[in-house]
Records
---
Amino acid sequence: MNERVKDILSGFFVSVTLINVVMLILGKILGPNQTFGYEVFMYPLIYGFIGAIPGIVISGKKELSVSQVIIRKIMQLLLIIVLMFAFMFGGKPIDSELVTVAIFVSISIVIVFVLVNAILWWLDMRTAQNMTDDLLKYQQKRLNRQ
Protein backbone atom coordinates (compact mmCIF):
# COMPACT_ATOMS: atom_id res chain seq x y z
CA MET A 1 0.00 0.00 0.00
CA ASN A 2 1.22 3.48 -0.79
CA GLU A 3 2.96 4.92 2.29
CA ARG A 4 1.06 8.22 2.01
CA VAL A 5 -2.33 6.47 1.97
CA LYS A 6 -1.27 4.35 4.94
CA ASP A 7 -0.28 7.49 6.89
CA ILE A 8 -3.58 9.22 6.08
CA LEU A 9 -5.61 6.16 7.10
CA SER A 10 -3.63 5.75 10.33
CA GLY A 11 -4.24 9.40 11.16
CA PHE A 12 -7.92 9.05 10.34
CA PHE A 13 -8.48 6.06 12.62
CA VAL A 14 -6.49 7.54 15.50
CA SER A 15 -8.45 10.79 15.05
CA VAL A 16 -11.82 9.04 15.04
CA THR A 17 -10.96 7.19 18.24
CA LEU A 18 -9.88 10.38 20.01
CA ILE A 19 -12.88 12.30 18.64
CA ASN A 20 -15.16 9.69 20.22
CA VAL A 21 -13.48 10.28 23.58
CA VAL A 22 -13.74 14.08 23.20
CA MET A 23 -17.42 13.85 22.22
CA LEU A 24 -18.10 11.76 25.31
CA ILE A 25 -16.32 14.24 27.59
CA LEU A 26 -17.82 17.37 25.99
CA GLY A 27 -21.26 15.76 25.95
CA LYS A 28 -21.03 15.04 29.67
CA ILE A 29 -19.95 18.64 30.33
CA LEU A 30 -22.12 20.63 27.90
CA GLY A 31 -25.22 18.47 27.47
CA PRO A 32 -25.40 15.71 30.09
CA ASN A 33 -29.16 15.21 29.68
CA GLN A 34 -29.22 15.07 25.87
CA THR A 35 -29.98 11.82 24.10
CA PHE A 36 -29.29 10.99 20.48
CA GLY A 37 -30.21 8.48 17.83
CA TYR A 38 -27.92 6.19 15.92
CA GLU A 39 -27.06 8.93 13.40
CA VAL A 40 -24.71 10.43 16.00
CA PHE A 41 -22.27 7.57 15.30
CA MET A 42 -21.56 9.18 11.90
CA TYR A 43 -20.19 12.40 13.37
CA PRO A 44 -16.79 11.07 14.52
CA LEU A 45 -16.31 9.63 11.03
CA ILE A 46 -17.27 12.94 9.42
CA TYR A 47 -15.05 14.92 11.81
CA GLY A 48 -12.20 12.46 11.19
CA PHE A 49 -12.59 12.94 7.44
CA ILE A 50 -12.65 16.72 7.84
CA GLY A 51 -9.52 16.46 9.97
CA ALA A 52 -7.80 14.39 7.28
CA ILE A 53 -8.47 16.91 4.48
CA PRO A 54 -5.62 19.31 5.39
CA GLY A 55 -3.16 16.40 5.49
CA ILE A 56 -4.23 15.45 2.00
CA VAL A 57 -4.25 19.01 0.62
CA ILE A 58 -1.15 20.33 2.37
CA SER A 59 1.41 17.72 1.45
CA GLY A 60 4.48 17.39 -0.65
CA LYS A 61 7.14 14.92 -1.69
CA LYS A 62 10.04 17.14 -0.67
CA GLU A 63 11.85 16.47 2.61
CA LEU A 64 11.15 19.33 5.06
CA SER A 65 13.22 20.86 7.82
CA VAL A 66 11.91 20.77 11.38
CA SER A 67 10.75 24.39 11.20
CA GLN A 68 8.98 23.75 7.89
CA VAL A 69 7.20 20.72 9.38
CA ILE A 70 6.09 22.82 12.37
CA ILE A 71 4.77 25.56 10.06
CA ARG A 72 2.96 22.95 7.97
CA LYS A 73 1.40 21.39 11.08
CA ILE A 74 0.25 24.83 12.32
CA MET A 75 -1.33 25.50 8.92
CA GLN A 76 -3.05 22.11 9.04
CA LEU A 77 -4.37 22.80 12.55
CA LEU A 78 -5.75 26.20 11.56
CA LEU A 79 -7.38 24.73 8.46
CA ILE A 80 -8.94 21.94 10.54
CA ILE A 81 -10.38 24.50 12.97
CA VAL A 82 -11.83 26.58 10.13
CA LEU A 83 -13.34 23.52 8.41
CA MET A 84 -14.79 22.17 11.66
CA PHE A 85 -16.32 25.53 12.56
CA ALA A 86 -17.82 25.86 9.09
CA PHE A 87 -19.30 22.36 9.33
CA MET A 88 -20.51 22.61 12.93
CA PHE A 89 -21.54 26.25 13.26
CA GLY A 90 -22.02 27.50 9.71
CA GLY A 91 -25.18 29.60 9.47
CA LYS A 92 -26.01 29.55 13.17
CA PRO A 93 -26.58 32.87 14.91
CA ILE A 94 -23.80 33.75 17.34
CA ASP A 95 -24.88 33.76 20.98
CA SER A 96 -23.13 33.15 24.30
CA GLU A 97 -23.89 29.42 24.25
CA LEU A 98 -22.39 29.05 20.77
CA VAL A 99 -19.26 30.94 21.85
CA THR A 100 -18.87 28.62 24.86
CA VAL A 101 -19.25 25.54 22.70
CA ALA A 102 -16.84 26.98 20.12
CA ILE A 103 -14.20 27.54 22.80
CA PHE A 104 -14.54 23.95 24.06
CA VAL A 105 -14.46 22.66 20.48
CA SER A 106 -11.35 24.70 19.67
CA ILE A 107 -9.51 23.40 22.71
CA SER A 108 -10.62 19.86 21.87
CA ILE A 109 -9.42 20.17 18.27
CA VAL A 110 -5.99 21.33 19.44
CA ILE A 111 -5.75 18.50 21.99
CA VAL A 112 -6.84 15.86 19.45
CA PHE A 113 -4.46 17.26 16.84
CA VAL A 114 -1.50 17.16 19.23
CA LEU A 115 -2.38 13.67 20.48
CA VAL A 116 -2.85 12.28 16.96
CA ASN A 117 0.51 13.65 15.87
CA ALA A 118 2.21 12.39 19.04
CA ILE A 119 0.72 8.90 18.62
CA LEU A 120 1.67 8.74 14.94
CA TRP A 121 5.19 9.97 15.77
CA TRP A 122 5.50 7.29 18.46
CA LEU A 123 4.31 4.60 16.04
CA ASP A 124 6.80 5.79 13.41
CA MET A 125 9.62 5.77 15.97
CA ARG A 126 8.69 2.24 17.02
CA THR A 127 8.66 1.11 13.38
CA ALA A 128 12.04 2.76 12.77
CA GLN A 129 13.48 1.07 15.86
CA ASN A 130 12.18 -2.31 14.75
CA MET A 131 13.69 -1.81 11.29
CA THR A 132 17.01 -0.80 12.83
CA ASP A 133 16.99 -3.86 15.09
CA ASP A 134 16.19 -6.13 12.14
CA LEU A 135 18.98 -4.57 10.10
CA LEU A 136 21.47 -5.07 12.92
CA LYS A 137 20.40 -8.73 13.24
CA TYR A 138 20.81 -9.19 9.49
CA GLN A 139 24.26 -7.61 9.55
CA GLN A 140 25.27 -9.80 12.49
CA LYS A 141 24.14 -12.93 10.66
CA ARG A 142 26.16 -11.91 7.59
CA LEU A 143 29.24 -11.33 9.71
CA ASN A 144 28.84 -14.70 11.43
CA ARG A 145 28.65 -16.50 8.05
CA GLN A 146 31.91 -14.99 6.81
---
Amino acid sequence: MLEVDGASVVARELKRPLLELRQLALGFDGKGKGDEEIRTEMVGVADRAMHQVDDLMKIQHLGNGDYKLEPVAVRAVCDDVLQEVAKLFGDKTCQMKVRYSNRQRLVMANKELLGSVVYNFLLDATHYASIDTKAELKVREVKNNVVVEVRDFGPALPIKIWREMKDSLVKQPNDMAMRPGSSVVGLFIASKFSKYMNAKVEAVRHQDGTSFLIKLPTLRQMSIWEFR
Protein backbone atom coordinates (compact mmCIF):
# COMPACT_ATOMS: atom_id res chain seq x y z
CA MET A 1 0.00 0.00 0.00
CA LEU A 2 1.12 3.56 -0.65
CA GLU A 3 2.05 5.68 2.34
CA VAL A 4 -0.16 8.64 3.19
CA ASP A 5 2.04 11.20 1.39
CA GLY A 6 2.21 9.04 -1.72
CA ALA A 7 -1.52 8.46 -1.69
CA SER A 8 -2.20 12.20 -1.53
CA VAL A 9 0.04 12.75 -4.55
CA VAL A 10 -1.85 10.03 -6.44
CA ALA A 11 -5.16 11.64 -5.50
CA ARG A 12 -4.02 15.05 -6.73
CA GLU A 13 -2.69 13.65 -9.99
CA LEU A 14 -5.81 11.65 -10.73
CA LYS A 15 -7.93 14.71 -9.89
CA ARG A 16 -6.09 16.76 -12.53
CA PRO A 17 -7.63 15.06 -15.59
CA LEU A 18 -11.08 15.31 -14.03
CA LEU A 19 -10.61 19.07 -13.71
CA GLU A 20 -9.41 19.20 -17.32
CA LEU A 21 -12.51 17.32 -18.45
CA ARG A 22 -14.72 19.70 -16.50
CA GLN A 23 -13.08 22.73 -18.09
CA LEU A 24 -13.38 21.25 -21.56
CA ALA A 25 -17.01 20.34 -20.97
CA LEU A 26 -17.78 23.95 -20.04
CA GLY A 27 -16.59 25.03 -23.49
CA PHE A 28 -18.58 22.37 -25.33
CA ASP A 29 -22.13 23.24 -26.41
CA GLY A 30 -22.52 21.09 -29.53
CA LYS A 31 -22.79 24.12 -31.82
CA GLY A 32 -19.32 25.61 -32.01
CA LYS A 33 -16.80 25.07 -34.83
CA GLY A 34 -14.20 23.73 -32.41
CA ASP A 35 -16.48 21.18 -30.76
CA GLU A 36 -14.94 18.19 -32.53
CA GLU A 37 -11.49 19.25 -31.35
CA ILE A 38 -12.77 19.65 -27.79
CA ARG A 39 -14.46 16.26 -27.96
CA THR A 40 -11.22 14.61 -29.14
CA GLU A 41 -9.25 16.29 -26.35
CA MET A 42 -11.79 15.17 -23.73
CA VAL A 43 -11.52 11.56 -24.91
CA GLY A 44 -7.73 11.79 -24.78
CA VAL A 45 -7.73 13.11 -21.22
CA ALA A 46 -10.11 10.36 -20.12
CA ASP A 47 -8.06 7.65 -21.86
CA ARG A 48 -4.83 8.79 -20.16
CA ALA A 49 -6.51 8.79 -16.75
CA MET A 50 -8.01 5.33 -17.25
CA HIS A 51 -4.69 3.93 -18.46
CA GLN A 52 -3.02 5.17 -15.29
CA VAL A 53 -5.72 3.74 -13.04
CA ASP A 54 -5.44 0.38 -14.84
CA ASP A 55 -1.67 0.38 -14.30
CA LEU A 56 -2.07 1.12 -10.59
CA MET A 57 -4.44 -1.84 -10.31
CA LYS A 58 -1.91 -4.10 -12.05
CA ILE A 59 0.68 -3.36 -9.35
CA GLN A 60 -1.50 -5.14 -6.81
CA HIS A 61 -1.52 -8.31 -8.94
CA LEU A 62 2.17 -8.55 -9.85
CA GLY A 63 2.75 -11.36 -7.36
CA ASN A 64 -0.18 -13.48 -8.55
CA GLY A 65 1.53 -14.93 -11.61
CA ASP A 66 -0.77 -13.04 -13.99
CA TYR A 67 2.14 -11.41 -15.82
CA LYS A 68 4.52 -14.05 -17.14
CA LEU A 69 7.96 -13.17 -18.43
CA GLU A 70 8.60 -14.39 -21.96
CA PRO A 71 10.50 -13.41 -25.13
CA VAL A 72 9.27 -10.00 -26.26
CA ALA A 73 10.14 -8.04 -29.42
CA VAL A 74 11.13 -4.61 -28.14
CA ARG A 75 10.69 -2.72 -31.40
CA ALA A 76 7.18 -4.07 -31.88
CA VAL A 77 6.23 -2.93 -28.36
CA CYS A 78 7.63 0.54 -29.03
CA ASP A 79 5.78 0.77 -32.36
CA ASP A 80 2.50 -0.17 -30.68
CA VAL A 81 3.00 2.42 -27.94
CA LEU A 82 3.91 5.13 -30.45
CA GLN A 83 0.61 4.49 -32.23
CA GLU A 84 -1.26 4.63 -28.93
CA VAL A 85 0.34 7.93 -27.94
CA ALA A 86 -0.29 9.31 -31.44
CA LYS A 87 -4.03 8.82 -30.90
CA LEU A 88 -3.78 10.96 -27.77
CA PHE A 89 -1.53 13.74 -29.04
CA GLY A 90 -1.85 13.67 -32.83
CA ASP A 91 0.67 15.97 -34.52
CA LYS A 92 2.83 16.27 -31.41
CA THR A 93 3.83 12.62 -31.74
CA CYS A 94 5.21 13.39 -35.20
CA GLN A 95 7.62 15.72 -33.44
CA MET A 96 9.53 12.76 -32.05
CA LYS A 97 12.72 11.21 -33.37
CA VAL A 98 12.73 7.41 -33.37
CA ARG A 99 15.90 5.36 -33.81
CA TYR A 100 16.30 1.60 -33.46
CA SER A 101 19.87 0.22 -33.50
CA ASN A 102 19.56 -2.96 -31.40
CA ARG A 103 20.66 -6.20 -33.06
CA GLN A 104 19.15 -8.35 -30.32
CA ARG A 105 15.46 -8.00 -31.06
CA LEU A 106 14.12 -10.10 -28.16
CA VAL A 107 14.26 -9.49 -24.41
CA MET A 108 12.85 -11.37 -21.45
CA ALA A 109 9.92 -9.27 -20.29
CA ASN A 110 6.15 -9.01 -20.19
CA LYS A 111 4.73 -7.31 -23.26
CA GLU A 112 1.91 -5.57 -21.40
CA LEU A 113 4.08 -4.27 -18.56
CA LEU A 114 6.90 -3.19 -20.88
CA GLY A 115 4.37 -1.36 -23.01
CA SER A 116 3.18 0.54 -19.95
CA VAL A 117 6.73 1.55 -19.01
CA VAL A 118 7.44 2.92 -22.49
CA TYR A 119 3.99 4.54 -22.57
CA ASN A 120 4.62 6.44 -19.33
CA PHE A 121 8.03 7.61 -20.53
CA LEU A 122 6.62 8.78 -23.88
CA LEU A 123 3.67 10.48 -22.23
CA ASP A 124 6.04 12.66 -20.21
CA ALA A 125 8.27 13.46 -23.18
CA THR A 126 5.38 14.38 -25.49
CA HIS A 127 4.24 17.09 -23.08
CA TYR A 128 7.46 18.97 -23.80
CA ALA A 129 7.74 18.21 -27.52
CA SER A 130 7.64 20.93 -30.15
CA ILE A 131 8.98 21.53 -33.64
CA ASP A 132 12.17 23.02 -32.19
CA THR A 133 12.61 20.53 -29.33
CA LYS A 134 11.64 17.10 -30.58
CA ALA A 135 11.46 14.26 -28.08
CA GLU A 136 13.57 11.19 -28.86
CA LEU A 137 12.94 7.46 -28.56
CA LYS A 138 15.98 5.21 -28.95
CA VAL A 139 16.42 1.45 -28.64
CA ARG A 140 20.02 0.22 -28.47
CA GLU A 141 22.25 -2.44 -26.94
CA VAL A 142 24.59 -1.99 -24.00
CA LYS A 143 26.48 -4.99 -22.56
CA ASN A 144 23.94 -7.78 -23.14
CA ASN A 145 21.07 -5.45 -22.34
CA VAL A 146 18.60 -3.76 -24.64
CA VAL A 147 18.06 -0.16 -23.56
CA VAL A 148 14.90 1.79 -24.34
CA GLU A 149 15.58 5.49 -23.83
CA VAL A 150 13.18 8.42 -24.04
CA ARG A 151 14.73 11.88 -24.09
CA ASP A 152 12.81 15.09 -23.56
CA PHE A 153 13.77 18.75 -23.49
CA GLY A 154 11.61 19.81 -20.56
CA PRO A 155 12.65 21.09 -17.13
CA ALA A 156 15.26 19.21 -15.10
CA LEU A 157 14.18 16.20 -13.07
CA PRO A 158 14.17 16.90 -9.29
CA ILE A 159 17.26 15.52 -7.53
CA LYS A 160 15.20 13.35 -5.15
CA ILE A 161 13.44 11.55 -8.00
CA TRP A 162 16.70 11.24 -9.94
CA ARG A 163 18.40 9.57 -6.98
CA GLU A 164 15.55 7.11 -6.52
CA MET A 165 15.61 6.20 -10.20
CA LYS A 166 19.39 5.86 -10.00
CA ASP A 167 18.72 3.16 -7.38
CA SER A 168 16.18 1.61 -9.80
CA LEU A 169 13.17 2.19 -7.57
CA VAL A 170 10.84 5.13 -7.10
CA LYS A 171 9.63 4.31 -3.61
CA GLN A 172 6.40 6.28 -3.79
CA PRO A 173 4.90 9.08 -5.88
CA ASN A 174 6.25 12.53 -5.04
CA ASP A 175 5.32 15.95 -6.33
CA MET A 176 7.38 17.35 -9.22
CA ALA A 177 6.57 21.04 -9.25
CA MET A 178 9.61 21.64 -11.48
CA ARG A 179 8.10 19.43 -14.23
CA PRO A 180 4.37 20.29 -14.30
CA GLY A 181 3.75 18.14 -17.38
CA SER A 182 5.29 15.03 -15.86
CA SER A 183 3.44 12.18 -14.23
CA VAL A 184 4.91 11.28 -10.84
CA VAL A 185 2.57 8.31 -10.73
CA GLY A 186 3.78 7.24 -14.17
CA LEU A 187 7.39 7.04 -12.96
CA PHE A 188 6.28 5.12 -9.88
CA ILE A 189 4.44 2.63 -12.11
CA ALA A 190 7.41 2.29 -14.48
CA SER A 191 9.69 1.60 -11.53
CA LYS A 192 7.43 -1.12 -10.13
CA PHE A 193 6.92 -2.86 -13.47
CA SER A 194 10.64 -2.74 -14.30
CA LYS A 195 11.62 -4.31 -11.00
CA TYR A 196 9.13 -7.12 -11.60
CA MET A 197 10.71 -7.81 -15.02
CA ASN A 198 14.27 -7.89 -13.58
CA ALA A 199 14.97 -4.72 -15.52
CA LYS A 200 16.50 -1.45 -14.36
CA VAL A 201 15.08 2.03 -14.72
CA GLU A 202 17.32 5.05 -14.72
CA ALA A 203 17.13 8.78 -15.34
CA VAL A 204 19.76 11.12 -16.73
CA ARG A 205 19.57 14.81 -15.96
CA HIS A 206 20.66 17.10 -18.81
CA GLN A 207 21.06 20.84 -18.87
CA ASP A 208 18.20 20.93 -21.32
CA GLY A 209 15.96 18.08 -20.25
CA THR A 210 15.84 14.51 -18.97
CA SER A 211 16.30 10.99 -20.33
CA PHE A 212 14.39 8.03 -18.90
CA LEU A 213 15.74 4.55 -19.56
CA ILE A 214 14.81 0.95 -18.99
CA LYS A 215 17.53 -1.70 -19.35
CA LEU A 216 16.22 -5.15 -20.20
CA PRO A 217 18.24 -8.39 -20.22
CA THR A 218 18.45 -10.11 -23.59
CA LEU A 219 17.54 -13.77 -23.95
CA ARG A 220 21.24 -14.56 -24.19
CA GLN A 221 21.93 -12.84 -20.88
CA MET A 222 19.02 -14.64 -19.21
CA SER A 223 20.38 -18.03 -20.36
CA ILE A 224 23.76 -17.20 -18.82
CA TRP A 225 22.07 -16.46 -15.49
CA GLU A 226 20.10 -19.69 -15.61
CA PHE A 227 23.20 -21.86 -15.96
CA ARG A 228 25.20 -20.22 -13.18
---
Amino acid sequence: MRIAAWMAFVLAAVVAVSAGAREWYENPLTVPDWDERTDAYLGCESGEILGYAIGENWADEVQLTFQLPEPALEGPWLVEYVALFVSGTGIHHVTIREAGGLSDAPGEIVADDLEFSPLYASWPPAAWTYVALKNDIACPPHLMGGEGDCFTIGAVLLPGDRIGLASAEPGNQGWGLYQGTWHDDTGRAQLIPAVRIGITDLGTSSTHRTTWGAIKDLFK
Protein backbone atom coordinates (compact mmCIF):
# COMPACT_ATOMS: atom_id res chain seq x y z
CA MET A 1 0.00 0.00 0.00
CA ARG A 2 2.85 2.36 0.82
CA ILE A 3 4.42 1.72 -2.59
CA ALA A 4 1.11 2.34 -4.33
CA ALA A 5 0.59 5.54 -2.37
CA TRP A 6 4.12 6.70 -3.20
CA MET A 7 3.63 6.01 -6.89
CA ALA A 8 0.36 7.94 -6.85
CA PHE A 9 2.15 10.87 -5.20
CA VAL A 10 4.94 10.85 -7.78
CA LEU A 11 2.42 10.67 -10.65
CA ALA A 12 0.46 13.57 -9.21
CA ALA A 13 3.65 15.61 -8.88
CA VAL A 14 4.60 14.93 -12.50
CA VAL A 15 1.14 15.96 -13.72
CA ALA A 16 1.32 19.13 -11.64
CA VAL A 17 4.71 20.08 -13.08
CA SER A 18 3.53 19.36 -16.62
CA ALA A 19 0.38 21.43 -16.17
CA GLY A 20 2.36 24.33 -14.74
CA ALA A 21 5.12 24.27 -17.33
CA ARG A 22 3.30 26.66 -19.68
CA GLU A 23 3.12 29.98 -17.89
CA TRP A 24 1.87 33.43 -18.77
CA TYR A 25 1.84 36.70 -16.88
CA GLU A 26 -0.95 39.20 -16.37
CA ASN A 27 -0.05 42.63 -17.68
CA PRO A 28 -3.20 44.36 -19.02
CA LEU A 29 -2.67 47.08 -21.58
CA THR A 30 -4.24 48.62 -24.66
CA VAL A 31 -2.44 47.97 -27.92
CA PRO A 32 -2.01 50.50 -30.75
CA ASP A 33 -4.72 50.63 -33.40
CA TRP A 34 -4.39 48.85 -36.71
CA ASP A 35 -3.07 51.33 -39.25
CA GLU A 36 -5.90 50.69 -41.75
CA ARG A 37 -3.64 49.73 -44.64
CA THR A 38 -6.21 47.07 -45.68
CA ASP A 39 -10.02 46.88 -45.88
CA ALA A 40 -10.32 45.09 -42.56
CA TYR A 41 -8.36 43.28 -39.88
CA LEU A 42 -9.05 40.23 -37.76
CA GLY A 43 -7.61 39.34 -34.37
CA CYS A 44 -7.38 41.23 -31.05
CA GLU A 45 -10.30 43.35 -32.16
CA SER A 46 -10.94 44.70 -28.65
CA GLY A 47 -7.44 46.14 -28.56
CA GLU A 48 -6.98 44.82 -25.03
CA ILE A 49 -4.06 42.59 -24.08
CA LEU A 50 -4.40 40.54 -20.89
CA GLY A 51 -0.71 39.81 -20.51
CA TYR A 52 2.20 38.09 -22.15
CA ALA A 53 4.08 34.82 -22.29
CA ILE A 54 7.80 34.20 -22.61
CA GLY A 55 8.60 32.01 -25.62
CA GLU A 56 10.45 29.16 -23.92
CA ASN A 57 7.83 28.94 -21.15
CA TRP A 58 4.81 29.07 -23.44
CA ALA A 59 5.38 27.83 -26.98
CA ASP A 60 8.01 27.22 -29.61
CA GLU A 61 5.48 28.47 -32.14
CA VAL A 62 2.17 30.31 -31.81
CA GLN A 63 -0.64 30.07 -34.33
CA LEU A 64 -4.01 31.75 -34.68
CA THR A 65 -6.73 30.27 -36.85
CA PHE A 66 -9.11 32.84 -38.35
CA GLN A 67 -12.48 32.14 -39.96
CA LEU A 68 -12.92 34.64 -42.78
CA PRO A 69 -16.12 36.75 -42.65
CA GLU A 70 -18.52 37.62 -45.42
CA PRO A 71 -16.86 40.03 -47.86
CA ALA A 72 -18.88 43.15 -48.63
CA LEU A 73 -17.89 43.04 -52.31
CA GLU A 74 -18.38 39.27 -52.74
CA GLY A 75 -14.68 38.49 -52.31
CA PRO A 76 -12.44 36.70 -52.29
CA TRP A 77 -10.38 37.94 -49.37
CA LEU A 78 -6.65 38.45 -49.84
CA VAL A 79 -4.61 38.18 -46.64
CA GLU A 80 -2.00 40.89 -47.18
CA TYR A 81 -0.39 41.43 -43.79
CA VAL A 82 0.20 39.75 -40.49
CA ALA A 83 0.96 41.85 -37.42
CA LEU A 84 2.33 40.51 -34.14
CA PHE A 85 2.42 42.23 -30.76
CA VAL A 86 5.75 40.74 -29.82
CA SER A 87 9.10 41.81 -28.41
CA GLY A 88 12.45 40.14 -28.95
CA THR A 89 15.59 40.15 -31.02
CA GLY A 90 16.96 38.19 -33.95
CA ILE A 91 15.56 36.86 -37.19
CA HIS A 92 12.12 35.27 -36.89
CA HIS A 93 9.96 33.34 -39.35
CA VAL A 94 6.28 33.75 -40.16
CA THR A 95 4.63 30.34 -40.54
CA ILE A 96 1.44 29.72 -42.50
CA ARG A 97 -0.05 26.27 -41.90
CA GLU A 98 -2.81 24.17 -43.36
CA ALA A 99 -6.15 25.04 -41.78
CA GLY A 100 -9.05 22.66 -41.33
CA GLY A 101 -11.72 24.12 -39.09
CA LEU A 102 -11.50 26.29 -35.99
CA SER A 103 -11.33 23.22 -33.75
CA ASP A 104 -8.60 21.53 -35.81
CA ALA A 105 -4.98 21.83 -34.74
CA PRO A 106 -2.69 23.57 -37.25
CA GLY A 107 -1.58 21.28 -40.07
CA GLU A 108 1.55 21.06 -42.17
CA ILE A 109 3.54 24.18 -43.05
CA VAL A 110 2.38 25.86 -46.25
CA ALA A 111 4.94 28.69 -46.20
CA ASP A 112 7.71 29.71 -43.81
CA ASP A 113 10.04 31.73 -46.01
CA LEU A 114 9.14 35.18 -44.69
CA GLU A 115 11.58 36.67 -42.18
CA PHE A 116 11.08 39.54 -39.76
CA SER A 117 12.64 41.06 -36.67
CA PRO A 118 10.46 42.41 -33.84
CA LEU A 119 10.47 46.19 -33.79
CA TYR A 120 11.14 46.29 -30.06
CA ALA A 121 13.43 44.20 -27.89
CA SER A 122 11.74 44.90 -24.55
CA TRP A 123 8.17 44.53 -23.28
CA PRO A 124 5.77 46.09 -23.97
CA PRO A 125 6.41 47.00 -27.60
CA ALA A 126 5.21 50.45 -28.64
CA ALA A 127 3.80 49.17 -31.94
CA TRP A 128 2.77 46.07 -33.83
CA THR A 129 5.40 44.38 -35.99
CA TYR A 130 3.92 44.22 -39.51
CA VAL A 131 4.98 41.67 -42.10
CA ALA A 132 3.78 41.90 -45.71
CA LEU A 133 2.70 38.48 -46.99
CA LYS A 134 2.39 39.07 -50.73
CA ASN A 135 4.71 40.56 -53.30
CA ASP A 136 3.73 43.10 -55.93
CA ILE A 137 3.54 40.55 -58.72
CA ALA A 138 1.07 37.83 -57.78
CA CYS A 139 -1.53 36.75 -55.23
CA PRO A 140 -0.56 33.26 -54.05
CA PRO A 141 -3.59 30.97 -53.72
CA HIS A 142 -2.73 30.14 -50.11
CA LEU A 143 -3.32 33.80 -49.20
CA MET A 144 -6.84 33.87 -50.66
CA GLY A 145 -10.13 32.62 -49.26
CA GLY A 146 -13.86 33.10 -49.16
CA GLU A 147 -16.50 33.44 -46.48
CA GLY A 148 -16.19 30.68 -43.86
CA ASP A 149 -12.75 29.55 -44.99
CA CYS A 150 -10.10 29.23 -42.28
CA PHE A 151 -6.61 30.67 -42.38
CA THR A 152 -3.88 29.72 -39.89
CA ILE A 153 -0.84 31.92 -39.36
CA GLY A 154 1.69 32.61 -36.65
CA ALA A 155 5.40 32.65 -35.93
CA VAL A 156 8.21 30.67 -34.41
CA LEU A 157 9.29 32.17 -31.08
CA LEU A 158 12.90 32.50 -29.97
CA PRO A 159 14.17 32.29 -26.37
CA GLY A 160 13.44 35.54 -24.56
CA ASP A 161 10.59 36.57 -26.87
CA ARG A 162 7.46 37.95 -25.26
CA ILE A 163 4.18 37.46 -27.10
CA GLY A 164 0.99 39.25 -26.10
CA LEU A 165 -2.09 37.25 -25.11
CA ALA A 166 -5.69 38.43 -25.49
CA SER A 167 -9.14 37.13 -24.67
CA ALA A 168 -10.68 34.58 -27.04
CA GLU A 169 -12.96 35.99 -29.74
CA PRO A 170 -15.62 34.41 -31.96
CA GLY A 171 -14.11 33.17 -35.19
CA ASN A 172 -10.58 32.82 -33.81
CA GLN A 173 -8.76 29.88 -32.23
CA GLY A 174 -5.35 30.14 -30.58
CA TRP A 175 -2.73 27.38 -30.56
CA GLY A 176 0.71 26.89 -29.05
CA LEU A 177 3.26 24.28 -30.13
CA TYR A 178 5.11 23.27 -26.96
CA GLN A 179 7.51 20.35 -26.74
CA GLY A 180 6.17 18.89 -29.96
CA THR A 181 2.46 19.05 -29.04
CA TRP A 182 -0.20 21.51 -30.15
CA HIS A 183 -2.13 23.03 -27.22
CA ASP A 184 -5.57 24.54 -27.73
CA ASP A 185 -5.13 27.76 -25.77
CA THR A 186 -8.60 29.05 -26.58
CA GLY A 187 -10.28 25.89 -25.31
CA ARG A 188 -7.98 25.55 -22.31
CA ALA A 189 -7.57 29.13 -21.13
CA GLN A 190 -9.78 31.26 -23.39
CA LEU A 191 -6.70 32.95 -24.81
CA ILE A 192 -5.40 33.85 -28.25
CA PRO A 193 -1.92 35.07 -29.19
CA ALA A 194 -1.71 38.74 -30.16
CA VAL A 195 -1.69 38.14 -33.90
CA ARG A 196 -3.70 40.15 -36.44
CA ILE A 197 -4.19 39.80 -40.16
CA GLY A 198 -5.04 42.56 -42.61
CA ILE A 199 -7.43 41.45 -45.35
CA THR A 200 -8.51 43.08 -48.62
CA ASP A 201 -11.72 42.33 -50.46
CA LEU A 202 -10.83 41.63 -54.10
CA GLY A 203 -14.45 41.47 -55.26
CA THR A 204 -14.35 44.77 -57.10
CA SER A 205 -14.91 43.45 -60.61
CA SER A 206 -16.17 40.45 -62.52
CA THR A 207 -12.57 39.84 -63.63
CA HIS A 208 -11.45 39.33 -60.05
CA ARG A 209 -14.31 36.94 -59.37
CA THR A 210 -13.61 34.95 -62.55
CA THR A 211 -9.92 34.66 -61.63
CA TRP A 212 -10.81 33.51 -58.13
CA GLY A 213 -13.12 30.83 -59.53
CA ALA A 214 -10.37 29.54 -61.81
CA ILE A 215 -7.88 29.39 -58.93
CA LYS A 216 -10.29 27.45 -56.73
CA ASP A 217 -10.94 24.94 -59.54
CA LEU A 218 -7.20 24.16 -59.66
CA PHE A 219 -7.23 22.99 -56.05
CA LYS A 220 -10.39 20.88 -55.96
